[in-house]
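Re: the pair you flagged

First of the two:
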Amino acid sequence: MNEQLLAARGLHVEYGLPGGRTAQAVCGVDIDVAPGEIVALAGESGCGKTTLARTLLGLERPTKGTVTMAGRPLGATNRELREFRRRAQLVLQDPTGALNPRHTVYEAIAEGLRIHGLHDNEHERVAQALAHVGLRPPERYLLSYPHELSGGQRQRVVIAGCLVLDPEIIIADEPVASLDASVRGEVLALLMRLRDDFGLGALVVTHDLGLAWSIADRIAVMYLGRIVEQGPVEQILTAPQHPYTSALVSVLPNSPVGEPQVLVGEAPDATRIPGGCRFSPRCPVLASGAADTAGIGAACRTIDLPILTRTDDDVAKVACHYAHATVHS
C-alpha cells in the first residue's frame, strides 16, 4: 500500500528524570497505517507501546521525528490538533474509566460533537453511531448511565463516541483487556466490521499475540522502545525471525515454533539501553553460543541495528544480526 493514512518516521520520545537521567521510551520508530488496514502493535508491558500510541495522537510531543496524517505533518496549535483528533480517535483500555458516570450514553457520545462544534443533526448522529456499534434500537440506550450497562456495552459506547465524529483512523489501546472472555470476540468482530464497512484504519496496541493474529493485517513487534520485527501478521506469527518474537509466539496454543521459550530476566531499564542489539542481554541465540558460531556474536553485543521501515512489497522485516546472517549464509 503506497497511500499511508497515519505515519511516523524516526520517532523518539525521551523523558528527563531526577539525577540527570533520561528515559528513552521510544528510540527511533517508523510505523504507518493505511486506510482500511488494521495494524497490531505488540510487545510486553513497558516496551513503549502506549507512549508511541499517545505520540501518534499528539498527546505526547516527540523529542525527535515526525508524525504525519495523509502526508501532512501533525500541527502544534490547538486548532490543528483539534482537527487532527477528530480524524484520529482513541479507544481506551478501560471503558468504565473512559465514561463519566454522571453522563448518560447520549451525553457521552454527543460530547465529541459539541467539542468540535458539530451541532447539526446531533440526535440523529448519536443514534446512528449507536446502531453502527450494534446497540439497537438506539433509543433503548440513549438515557442509560454507564453503571446500567455491561462491560461489552460500555466499550461499544466508547467506540460509538469515536465513530460519531466520522474518523479515518482509530487507535485502540488494549481494547478488550478489561472485558470478559465471552465478550472480547464480539468487540474484536466489531472493529473488523468497522474496518470493512467504513474503510477505517486501526492501530491496535496489545500484548496478546492471539488477538493480533485474529484481527490484524500487519503486526509490529516492539521491544525496549524499538520495533524489532514487522510485516504481514500471518508471516510474522507463523515464521518469526527475531528471537524475541519467537519467544512470544512460542507460548501461543498450537504454536508453530515448538516448545514454549522462557526468556531470562526482565527487560532492561529504559534509562540504560544496552549497547548493540537491545535484546542481547536476554537473547537465547546469543546465550546458547549460536550467534558466536555464526560469527556475529560481537556484532550483537556492539552494533546497533537500523530502524525498520515498511517496504512497498510488504515483506516482513527484522532487526536481528543473527536473522540477517542466517538468511544470507
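Second of the two:
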Amino acid sequence: MTSPTLALDPAWITRTVAVALDEDLGPAPGRDVTTQSTIPADAVGAADLVARQDGVVAGLVVAPEVVGQVAARLGLAVPSVDQRVADGTRVARGDVLAVLTGPVQVLLVAERTLLNLASRASGVATHTRRWADALEGTGALVLDTRKTTPGLRALEKYAVRCGGGTNKRMGLYDVAMVKDNHVVAAGSVAAAIEAVRTRFPDVTIQVEADTLDQALEAVGAGARFLLLDNMPTPLLAEVVAAVRAVDPRVELEATGNLTLDRAREVASTGVDYLSVGGLTHSSPILDLALDLEPLQPV
C-alpha cells in the first residue's frame, strides 16, 4: 500500500494547473475578458479562502502554483499565500483556510481553478474521514480504488490520504490484480498467478475471490493478498477464518457493496482492509469560496 504521508508531486501540480488554466482562459497566456476589463492591472487586494461547510480540507497545497502561473500569464506580481490550516485538517463553516494578497486580477483569474481543485480534493478527504472514523479501533483500514476522475488521480488519492485513508494500487502498472476475466483467459487461478510471476516478478499479486473455494484455491496457488468480493457478512467471516487457518500472513480485503452503516460489521470479520470506490467516484465537493476583501480607494 502507498504511504499515507506521501505528498503530491510538484511536477504533477504544475502540469495539472497548466491544463486547468488552459481550459478556463484558452491557450496560454489566455485571457479573462471580464476581469481584465473591469479591474485595473495595478489594483492590489486580499481574498480569504473560506470553508462554507464543515469538513476536512485537502488540495490547499496547489494554491501557490495556481496564483504563480496566473501571475506569469498576466505579467503581474505573484500574490502571497498565507495558508492558515494544513491539508487534512477538520474545519468548520466560516473558517478562513488561507489569505491571498496581491494583484486583484491574478486573484480573480485564479479563483475558479483553485476552488475546483481544492473543493474536489476536500470533498474526497471529508468522505474518506467518515470511513476512517467508522473503522477507528477495528484494526481495518479503508482503501481507495482506480475509480478516479481522469487526470486527477494523483489529487484524489492524495485527498484520500488527507482524510485518513490508504491508497491501493496507483494504476495497472504497480500491482497485479487477478480478477475473474484473467482467470478465464489464463485457464486457472494458479496459471494466472504463475504467468504474472514469470512476466513481472517484481510486482505484488492480488487475487479476487467470490467464494470460499476460490479463496482457498488462490491461497493454495501462493496468493498472499485476496480481494473478497461482494460477500455477505457471514460468508466473509467464514472465508476469513478459513484463510487464516491455512496461512495467517495472507492480507484480506473486503470489496463490493460496502456502506458506512456496515463498516464496523464488515471489519469485525477480521479483514485487513475495506476498499471503497465511492471515496473517489461519488464524493460531493466541499463548498469553498474565495471572498475578495473590499478594495481601498486609490
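Residues 201 and 262 are 37 Å apart (CA to CA).

-B.
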